């Protein structure tokens, strides 16, 4: 069996601080909010507050990178042990999700920082909710997320944030 894990929003950092998110340009919500909390950007924008969700902001499923790694390892083990060639796409996620406002509030809680939040028009094509159904991952891989609660994700990302800034500086100098 060939297992092909798919996922939506990978985030968080290794608890030892060795690896984490660092993109140039940065486009991911959690690192962008961290930059606002650290004073490295003027504000964080909420693109739309009229979604059909509990607080009007869109909902996304965030999965910790350590949970992704463990699922990929399980998929590799199954592939190495299997003799058939069945291909399975397997969603990895929490089956829950958080609104943009919930993510912003968690970053404020974890960092102890307040920062400017600006509401603006929604982006064309953004759906109300994007959440992964992880039932097949449970059944086929015997996998469930362990580290993908929002506080753990945000805390690990915040702990890694200073190193991420150094990585960005190094990459932009080249």
**Overall 3D shape:** globular
Helix content: 40-55%
CATH topology of the domain at 9-14 and 26-64 and 93-134 and 145-166: UDP-galactose 4-epimerase, domain 1
Count of helical regions: 5
Secondary structure category? alpha/beta
Distance between the termini: 42 Å
Low-confidence stretches: none
| CATH C-level name of the domain at 9-14 and 26-64 and 93-134 and 145-166 | Alpha Beta
3D structure, described in words:
This protein has 174 residues and is α/β, with parallel strands linked by helices. It has a domain at 9-14 and 26-64 and 93-134 and 145-166: UDP-galactose 4-epimerase, domain 1, CATH 3.90.25. Helices cover 40% and strands 18% of the residues. It contains five helices and nine strands; from the N terminus they run E-E-H-E-E-E-H-E-E-H-E-E-H-H. The chain has a three-stranded mixed sheet. Helix 1 crosses helix 3. The longest helix is centred in the C-terminal third of the chain and has 24 residues, at 150-173. The protein is globular and about 55 Å long.
Sequence-ordered SSE layout with sheet pairings:
Layout: E1 2-7, E2 9-11, H1 29-38, E3 44-47, E4 59-60, E5 62-64, H2 65-81, E6 87-92, E7 98-99, H3 100-111, E8 117-120, E9 129-130, H4 135-141, H5 150-173
Parallel strand pairs: 1-6, 2-5, 3-8, 4-9
Antiparallel strand pairs: 4-7
Helix pairs in contact: 1-3, 1-5, 3-5
Would you summarize the structure shown here?
The chain is 40% helix and 18% strand.
Tags for this entry?
about 170 residues, alpha/beta, UDP-galactose 4-epimerase, domain 1, 3-stranded mixed β-sheet, two-stranded parallel ribbon, about 40% helix, globular
């Amino acid at each position: 069996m060939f297992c092909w894990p798919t996922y939506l929003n990978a985030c968080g950092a290794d608890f030892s601080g060795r690896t984490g998110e660092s993109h140039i340009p940065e486009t991911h919500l959690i690192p962008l909010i961290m930059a606002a909390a650290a004073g490295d950007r003027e504000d964080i924008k909420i693109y739309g507050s009229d979604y059909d969700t509990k607080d009007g902001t869109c909902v996304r499923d965030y999965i910790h990178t350590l949970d992704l790694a463990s699922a990929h390892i399980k998929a590799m083990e199954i592939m190495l042990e299997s003799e058939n060639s069945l291909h399975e796409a397997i969603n990895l996620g929490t089956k829950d999700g958080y609104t943009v406002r919930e993510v912003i509030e968690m970053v404020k809680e974890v960092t102890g920082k307040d920062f400017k939040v600006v509401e603006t028009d929604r982006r064309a094509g953004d759906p109300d909710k994007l959440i992964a159904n992880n039932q097949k991952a449970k059944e086929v891989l015997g996998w469930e997320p362990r580290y993908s609660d929002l506080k753990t994700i945000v805390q690990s990302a915040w702990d890694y944030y200073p190193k991420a800034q150094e990585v960005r500086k190094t990459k932009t100098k080249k």
